[in-house]
From TrEMBL:
Signal peptide: none annotated. PANTHER family: HELIX-TURN-HELIX TRANSCRIPTIONAL REGULATOR, ICLR FAMILY, TRANSCRIPTIONAL REGULATORY PROTEIN. PROSITE patterns: HTH_ICLR, ICLR_ED. InterPro entries: GAF-like_dom_sf, HTH_MetabolicPath_Reg, Tscrpt_reg_IclR_C, Tscrpt_reg_IclR_N, WH-like_DNA-bd_sf, WH_DNA-bd_sf. It holds the Pfam family HTH_IclR. This is IclR family transcriptional regulator. Residues 7-70 form the HTH iclR-type domain. Residues 71-255 form the IclR-ED domain.
Length: 257
């Protein structure tokens, strides 16, 4: 049976939930959340109130700020227990990456058109890049994790994403559709993605995809560090290490037969 809920209502509601999540732990005011989602304040307030009525949000009576509610925790726990929370399996892999390379190692997960960093472990080398940290989000195609996930999507999904997404205003000309297409091709050739200091000068990254039970690129392992540690002659060494550990983690996530 077809739904009677207009798609734009679902999109607006989802945008508000993401905005509240991004504002945790202090939460956000109605005005702040309306601004973050580009909604009219009355519309935002109406949707926020409806979400609170259903238990998906809480509102502090004194400050009026909105935070995630108990239903979000229950649903999130149910989902994480099954398909999405792989942090327990990934910790040993992330540790191996940081210990062997000496660089900062990360696990990121795909969330729609973004990646979110879930785990970080710093290596022994004293100079580090601080671009990535747990909880930070980037669009697909930005940073090595977002690039390697994008590159391993089917061609039709890549074409659709590049048609509806304009990364240049925020991330610069190296994130134009043409530039992204070239980097996708390079990533597919080697299997791993290289971010040559496109976010912060002097901060490099290399990433490899981790696949879910259906073979989709759902996560990424990555290493970041200063430019002197990511010279071209070391790319293959780090890329091979990432591919090996990504293969191990992908195997851990597949059901036993």
């Amino acid at each position: 049976m077809a739904s009677n809920v207009p798609p734009n209502v679902i999109a607006r509601t989802a945008a508000l939930l993401r905005a509240v999540g991004a504002a945790e732990p202090d939460g956000g005011s109605t005005t702040e959340l309306a601004r973050a989602t580009q909604l009219a304040r009355p519309t935002a307030h109406r949707l926020l109130t409806s979400l609170a009525d259903e238990g998906f949000l809480d509102r502090d009576a004194a400050s009026g700020r909105w935070t995630l509610g108990p239903e979000m925790y229950l649903l999130g726990s149910a989902a994480a227990a099954g398909r999405y929370d792989i942090t327990d399996q990934a910790r040993r892999v992330v540790h191996t990456l940081s210990a062997v390379s000496g660089e900062s190692a990360f696990l990121s997960a795909r969330r729609g058109d973004e990646t979110v960093c879930l785990l970080r472990e710093d290596g022994s080398f004293p100079l580090r890049s601080h671009v990535l940290y747990e909880g930070i989000r980037f669009p697909l195609g930005v940073a090595s994790a977002g690039m390697v996930i994008l590159a391993h999507l089917p061609d039709r999904e890549i074409v659709d994403y590049l048609k509806r997404t304009d990364l240049q205003p925020e991330w610069g000309p190296e994130h134009s559709p043409e530039a992204l297409t070239r980097r996708i091709d390079a990533t597919r050739e080697t299997g791993y993605a290289v971010n040559p200091a496109l976010l912060v000068e002097g901060s490099w990254g290399i990433g490899a995809a981790v696949f879910d039970r259906t073979g989709k690129p759902a996560w990424a392992l990555s290493l970041t560090g200063v430019e002197t540690r990511f010279r071209p002659e070391r790319h293959k060494e780090l890329g091979t290490l990432l591919l090996e550990q990504a293969h191990i983690l992908t195997g851990l996530l597949r059901p036993e037969r």
